[in-house]
Each structure stands twice: as structure tokens, then as C-alpha cells.
Design brief:
Elements (H helix, E strand, L loop, with lengths): L1 H16 L8 E2 L2 E12 L3 E13 L4 E18 L2 E19 L6 E22 L4 E25 L2 E15 L2 E16 L2 E2 L1
Antiparallel strand pairs: 1-10, 2-3, 2-9, 3-4, 4-5, 5-6, 6-7, 7-8, 8-9
Length: about 200
């Protein structure tokens, strides 16, 4: 599976880089968007959440990008007469650079490298099996995160596009170890302003 999405990212990168040799093309100055996101971590479960994106296109192939997302996972554990309900939330605040190919008509592939902060809050609620509360605890952690990824947008109207696929390989330095995961998102993009080279 890891090789499959690595090949997918490589293909997106090739499309994005190919724009450097293309012809002059109009492109938006700014992009803003958001949507649904799914995050899968090896043995860390499957997280559901949201993702927002933004970009400032400096020219028809290179730009600056930001990415803010939030995820949630809930797990229930039991051990003899005890049970624990764990609730974990993560917020990611990332920024970096992006390559985009505006030379393919309605379809716009892009590739980005982002880095920043991953903030995780974990709450544990321990009870007896009959529901008698025994105690709660909350832990918070700030960690370094880096993302390699890309995707494909489909133009719907001049100022609106559908993010058909947003695929990221994400690494988070958590508790002294690297956590590796794959993030998949879909959503809508609003394009603001027009420029051309």
C-alpha cells in the first residue's frame, strides 16, 4: 500500500513540474478551500475530520501554501472490572511551498511540501464496568509534523473548483518516535483574482 500512494504522489509531482515548460496561462492569485478529511495511522487507528487549504500563487507554477486540519478518534478499552474511554483530538498547522500545473485545462494537479505543528490532546475517562467513575486525565502534546503530498482540482466555474483528490504522506514526531500516516481529503476551492505570466 505504501508503494501505491508513493507512486501516486510521484505522478502528481511529474504533472506539476511539467508546467515549468508549458505555455503562458492565466492562474488565480489566491486559493481558499476546505472539506472532509480521513487520516490513517499504521497502528494508531483511523481518524476523521476536516481540512482547510490556502495558497498564494507567485507565478503559474510556484506558490506558498498553508494547511490547517483537525481530526478526532475515540476508542473504548476494557480490562477485567475496569473500562476506559479514550478521546483523542489533533490539530495540524502547516505551511510550505507548492508546485502547480495550470496548463491542463479544467484539471489542475499540484504537489506540496509542508511542515509545522501537530497538537494532540488525549482525554481518558476510567470507570468500573457498572459505570462508576474512577477518574479522568488529560494529556497535551505539541509535535513537529512534515507532509509530502499533492492532489488534483477540477474546475467547475471560473472561481470554483472541486478538489477531487488530496493525498498526503504525513510524519509526526510524537513521544520521541516518528508516527507515519496517510491523509486523504476532498472538498471545494474558491479562486480569487487573476494573473498571468
Amino acid at each position: 500500500m505504501r508503494k501505491s500512494w508513493m507512486w501516486a504522489l510521484a505522478l502528481i509531482l511529474c504533472f506539476a513540474i511539467s508546467s515549468a515548460a508549458g505555455f503562458a496561462q492565466e492562474y488565480p492569485k489566491f486559493e481558499l478551500g476546505g472539506g472532509f478529511s480521513y487520516y490513517s495511522v499504521g497502528n494508531g487507528g483511523e481518524w476523521l475530520g476536516w481540512n482547510t487549504w490556502g495558497a498564494k500563487n507567485l507565478n503559474r507554477w510556484f506558490g506558498l501554501a498553508y494547511d490547517i486540519s483537525g481530526f478526532h478518534i475515540s476508542e473504548f478499552q476494557s480490562f477485567y472490572y475496569f473500562q476506559n474511554h479514550m478521546d483523542r483530538r489533533r490539530s495540524n498547522f502547516l505551511a510550505g511551498v507548492r508546485l502547480t500545473n495550470w496548463n491542463l485545462g479544467r484539471t489542475t494537479p499540484f504537489f506540496h511540501v509542508l511542515a509545522g505543528l501537530a497538537r494532540t490532546a488525549t482525554a481518558n475517562n476510567v470507570t468500573l464496568v457498572d459505570g462508576t467513575p474512577l477518574g479522568t486525565s488529560t494529556q497535551k502534546e505539541n509535535a513537529f509534523a512534515i507532509v509530502f503530498g499533492g492532489g488534483v482540482d477540477l474546475k467547475i466555474k471560473d472561481a470554483v473548483a472541486l478538489r477531487l483528490l488530496h493525498l498526503d504522506y504525513m510524519r509526526v514526531r510524537s513521544a520521541g518516535e516518528w508516527e507515519e500516516g496517510v491523509r486523504v481529503s476532498v472538498g471545494l476551492i474558491v479562486r480569487l483574482g487573476t494573473a498571468h505570466d
